[in-house]
Amino acid sequence: MTNTKTAQLRAKVDLALAGGTAKARAKHVDAGKLMVRDRLKLLFDEGAAFEDGLLAGSARELPADAIVTCIGKVNGRDVAVIANDMTVKAGSWGHTTFLKLTRMQEVAKEAGIPLVYLVDSAGARVDEQADSYLGRRAWGNIFYNQVVTSGIVPQVCALFGPSPAGAAYIPALCDLTIMVDKQATAMLGSTRMAKMTIGEDISEEELGGARMHCAVSGLGDVLVESDEQAIAKVRAYLSYLPSVWSDKPPRAAPLAPKVLAKPLEDIIPANQNVPYDVKLLIDGLVDADSFFEVKALFAAELVTGFARLGGMPVGIIANNSKVKGGVLFVDSSDKATRFIWMCNAFNVPLLFLQDVSGYMIGSKMERAGIIRHGAKLLSAVCESTVPRISVVVRKGYGGGYVAMSGASTHPDALLALPTGMSGLVGPEAAINALYAKQVAEMPEQDRDEFVRIKRAEYAKDIDVMGMAADRFHVEAVVEPGHLRDELIARFNIYSRRQNKPIERRSAVHQV
C-alpha cells in the first residue's frame, strides 16, 4: 500500500514538474524561451531548497496551477521566487495561483529575503474572477503585498513574455524590472482593445514592447536579448543589495579600476562646454566591470547605476554632458528620484557626479511639470540618510547643483575636481543678465571682447579653488587621479555612522 501511494505521488510530481502539454512546451521553446524550471536552474546556485504547492491544480490537470513558488540560494543567500509557467494555461492566474503567489510574498517578507518575480503570464483568468476579483482576499492583494513589502526586502522582476492589464503592475511595483527584447510586453489594454475602444491601430511591440518601455515609458530598467541574460542580470543586481533593509550591503573583494586609454585628467575636458561621456569617468573610478547601469536607455542625460568602490557597493547618479548637455529634465528627475529611494531603502551609499547647468527651462518643460518633478528629486536627496558624497566634476549651477546633492542638502562631503565651478548661473547666463543693456549700447566691434573678459572674470569668481575652497564650501578639491582613493577612504568612514530617519511631528499642533 505504501509503495502504491509513493508511486502515485511520484507520478503526480513528475507530471507537475513537466509543466504543460507537449504541444505547449514545444511552442514555448520554439519561441526562443526557456522553460520555467530551466530558468530556475540558471538562477539558483543549486536546486531549490523547497517548493510550495507543486501539486496544486493537479486534479484539474493544471500542473502547479501555472506558477512555481520556491526558495533557493542566489550568490549564497536565500531568495524567494515566484515564476509563471507559460506552458500551463498561458501562465494565467486563477484562485489557487493567487493563493500560492501571495503566500510566497508573505514568506519572503517575514523571513527577510529578496523576492524575485519571473513573469511570463497572460494575466488573470476571467472564468475564475468570482472567487478572485472582489473582496478582501482577491488578486489585488498581490499588489498590496508588493507595496507593503517595498523597502523591506529587494523585489526584482524579470519579464520574459506578456504581463497584461492588472498583471502589468507587478513589474511596475518592483525595485528593478529587466525585460527581454522582442519577447516581453506590458500593457493595460491589448492592441485589439485599443483598436476597438479608441480606434488606434498599433503593434504589440509599439504599444508595450520591451524596448519601448526601457527607452520611452521608463517602466523597464534593463533591456536584455535573452532569457539567459535576464537571469544573469537578476543575479548581478542582487549582489549589490542586502537581503533585508536592516542589513548592510554585501561587500566583495576589491578590484582595481578598468585600465583606460587616457588618464582621467585627459578624459574630462577643462572647457565646461565641451561634452564627454561620464561613463568613462565612472569606469576610471569604480572596481573593474562592477558598474551595473539602471535605465541606460531612458533619460540618458543622467546616468544611474550600482558599482563597487574598493569592494563596497555604491549607487551612482551622474550628469552626462554628452546627452542634452546633462541638463535635468522631467524624466531624468524621476529616474534619479526612484534610484535614490531604492539605495536609501537598502543602505547603499550614494555618489553624485555633478556636471549640470540646471533644470531645463521653457514652456514645454513648465507644462510638463518640471518644478513638481524637480521638487520630488530634491526631496529624495534631502530625505536620504545613507552616506552621501557629491563631486563637482565641472559645472554645478542653480537648482541643478542643489538637486545633485549640493552642500546645502547636507551630504557627508562635497568634493570638487580642479575643473569644478559652482554658482547660481554659469558665466554665459550671468554676463547676459548683468550686462545685456550695456553690451547692446556699445559699438559692435567691442562687444565680443567685452563679453569674453567679463565671462573670464566671473568664471574666476566661481572657480572652486577660489571662493568655494577658501570659505570651506567644499571639503576638498581633489586631483582626478586621486579621487577614487579619496572616495573609498571617505565612504569607509561615513559608513560607520548610524543612519537616522528624518524626524516628523508626532502630534498635531494645537492652538
SS field, number of helical segments: 21
Shape, principal axes of CA atoms: elongated
Spatial separation of the terminal alpha carbons: 79 Å
Quote the beta fraction.
Answer: 15-25%
Task: Please tally the β strands and state the result.
Answer: 17
Features:
disordered C terminus; eight-stranded mixed beta sheet; elongated; single chain; 511 residues
Explain what the structure shows:
It is a single chain. This protein is α/β, with parallel strands linked by helices and 511 residues long. Helix 4 runs parallel beside helix 6 (140-149), helix 14 (330-345) runs parallel beside helix 16 (370-383) and helix 18 (427-441) packs antiparallel against helix 19 (444-462). Helices cover 41% and strands 17% of the residues. The chain starts with a helix and ends in a 17-residue tail after the last helix. The longest helix has 19 residues, at 444-462. It is elongated. Mean pLDDT is 91; it is low at 506-511. Strand 2 and strand 3 form a beta hairpin.
Short description:
The chain has 511 residues and is α/β, with parallel strands linked by helices. Helix content is 41%, strand content 17%.
Write the layout of secondary structure elements.
Elements: H1 2-18, H2 22-30, H3 36-43, E1 50-52, E2 67-74, E3 77-84, H4 95-111, E4 115-119, H5 129-132, H6 140-149, E5 155-159, E6 162-164, H7 169-173, E7 176-180, E8 185-187, H8 191-198, H9 204-208, H10 210-217, E9 222-224, H11 227-238, H12 264-267, H13 278-285, E10 292-294, E11 302-309, E12 312-319, H14 330-345, E13 350-356, H15 363-368, H16 370-383, E14 388-397, H17 398-403, E15 413-416, E16 421-423, H18 427-441, H19 444-462, H20 464-470, E17 476-477, H21 483-494
Parallel strand pairs: 3-4, 4-5, 5-7, 6-8, 7-9, 12-13, 13-14, 14-15, 14-16, 15-17
Antiparallel strand pairs: 1-2, 2-3, 10-11, 11-12
Helix pairs in contact: 4-6, 14-16, 18-19
